[in-house]
Amino acid sequence: MAGAKKPTNKDKSAGYKDTKKKKDKGEGGPKKAEITVKVNEQQGLKIIQNSKVVTVQDLARQAGVKISAANAFLKESTSKGIVKRVGGYSGHHLYQAVSS
Questions:
Q1: Under 8 Å between Cβ of 59 and 97
Q2: End-to-end Cα spacing for the chain
Q3: Taking the CB of residue 39, how many other CB atoms lie within 10 A of it?
Q4: For 8-23, how does the pLDDT look when each residue is reduced to its tens digit (9 = 90+)?
């Protein structure tokens, strides 16, 4: 049961040519528009205040945005002092509203 012979380096030099053409990275269709989605601040704070603790994934699901947008909102809110990080590990942090 012998299979088809695969070309070797000797076969390539004897006239075997690659039929694959490399596409230049500069070529392409029209540029894609950049879309920015942000969490509405009032909506985000309402979600956080109604929960004991919230994760990035919870906020993203409830607000209907991507995890990256929810993460950016939580980091910004943490730097403003509206929200504090209360636990979690390895990127899965728990956030809680700062009680006034």
A1: no
A2: 79
A3: 24
A4: 666 555 555 556 665 5
